[in-house]
Design a protein that fits this description.
The protein is built from 2 helices and 10 strands; from the N terminus they run αβββββαβββββ. It is α+β, with helices and mostly antiparallel strands.
């Protein structure tokens, strides 16, 4: 009888320990994703001479993100219409509590001419590195870690400015962590 009670106690202790470890892992992952979850982007119509859609990127965290890349899709050379490759444009560091609006204009025209990206294209995702050095990718639909090398498909960045520096409007972000 005591052996059965000990086995039941052991099973109960093991189950409680497993759920405790699982909860700790989930909390750790939430903590890791906290800053990345505060960085987002969307498209907005701009009232500028060029008109069209601009891209808004916002960092609502209290830490800067580095290695910000806007990633566009371009048709593959000689590929089918449905074959695309990524072309990313580096912007550098996005300060804490900052909203950037990339206005349409020469930036998009240069991208369209140099990389066959549609002139009215908007980024399909952004890539950045958080304060802990973790690389993240945010698309319209998800936030996930990676890639290990966020610069793998870059067209330009501050070191190799092949594309005109975009016209960017910088403002404080609303609803920033305080």
């Amino acid at each position: 009888m005591s052996a059965i009670a000990a086995a039941v106690g052991l099973l109960f202790s093991g189950t409680v320990a497993w759920f405790s470890v699982s909860a700790t892992r989930q909390q750790l992952e939430q903590n890791r994703r906290h800053q990345a979850g505060r960085v987002t982007f969307w498209y907005t119509f701009t009232d500028t001479p060029d008109g069209g859609y601009g891209t808004v990127v916002v960092n609502r965290s209290l830490d800067p993100v580095t290695g910000l890349y806007l990633v566009f899709h371009a048709p593959k050379q000689g590929g089918r219409v449905t074959d695309y490759e990524s072309v990313s444009l580096g912007f550098g560091t996005l300060p804490p509590c900052t909203r950037l609006t990339f206005l349409p204009g020469s930036f998009y025209r240069d991208l369209a001419q140099g990389y066959q990206v549609a002139e009215d294209a908007t980024p399909r995702e952004i890539r950045f590195t958080d304060a802990d050095g973790t690389n993240w990718t945010r698309s319209d639909e998800s936030l996930h870690r990676g890639p290990d090398d966020p610069t793998k498909d870059r067209a330009s960045d501050s070191a190799t400015p092949e594309i005109a520096v975009p016209n960017v409007k910088r403002e404080p972000a609303q609803h920033c962590d305080v």
